[in-house]
Amino acid sequence: MIPILQTIYYSFTNWNGFSASWVGVGTYINLFRDSVFWRVLLNNGGLLISISVALFLPLVTAFLLTQRVFAWRFFRSVYFLPTAVSWVVIGMVAMRFFNGMLSGEISALIAVLLTFIWSVFGTNTVIFVTGMATMDESLYEAARIDGAATFQVVRHITIPLLKRFIQFAFITTLITAFTALFSLIFVMTGGGPGYGTTTLEFFIYQQAFTIGNFGYAATLGVVLFVIVFAISIAQMRLFKGNEGEEG
């Protein structure tokens, strides 16, 4: 709690890393008037949208793996391999793979989003495979006997029973997207071109350690904390509400 409280305090100051002078809410007023902040926030919005893809693809893959498709054990191991690779290595490989896309702001952001989705694919697949392994096979057998199609089985049996696992995967993926991509972005694009791939996390680094504006960086840190906390709470309430309706 002490570092969190310190960050909140410094977010109201003009702090250069050595001395701080109280400014008050003026730091937040200046932040929300900063067009660069809104540009960076838009990039985080792209990451937030990409989380749905980062959950959907592993969910489909996990379902196929649990159907014991040909060489399913081999593919399960292969899909998990990216998880064992560091962000720096992933960034270097992605930089070469997407070399032709990193010159424009939009194309560079798309390249970062695709790399992010690929990097969490293995972890989320394993989470969903683990969740499906806990399910009662008799439910699937009964559904097949009743003539349920694969889509109906997934929608009415698999997804409802996987809610806790989906919730866990969402929160871990959200935290990764908003607070763990510094190394990837630093290696791939350096936040550029312009601010095309600069996220709030990377913007905090730039303000603090490139410009030396630690007070502004602390303000950004508080905003980032609030965003992640609010999205996590909203998502948990949504799942809780759905469970209540089903009950």
Provide structural commentary.
There is one protein chain. The protein is mainly alpha-helical. It has one domain (23-246): Orthogonal Bundle (MetI-like fold). The protein has helices at 2-10, 26-33, 35-66, 72-80, 87-97, 105-133, 137-145, 150-161, 163-179, 182-188, 200-211, 214-246, and strands at 13-15, 20-22. The two termini are 37 Å apart.
SSE layout:
Elements: H1 2-10, E1 13-15, E2 20-22, H2 26-33, H3 35-66, H4 72-80, H5 87-97, H6 105-133, H7 137-145, H8 150-161, H9 163-179, H10 182-188, H11 200-211, H12 214-246
Overall pLDDT: 89
Please estimate the helix content. over 70%
Overall tally of structural domains: 1
- The topology string of helices and strands comes to HEEHHHHHHHHHHH
Number of strands: 2
Instruction: Using the coordinates shown, work out and report the CATH topology.
Output: MetI-like fold
**Text of the CATH class:** Mainly Alpha
Largest sheet: 2 strands, antiparallel
CATH homologous superfamily heading: MetI-like
Low-confidence stretches: none
Strand % is under 5%
Radius of gyration: 21 Å
The second-level CATH architecture is Orthogonal Bundle
Structural class: mainly alpha
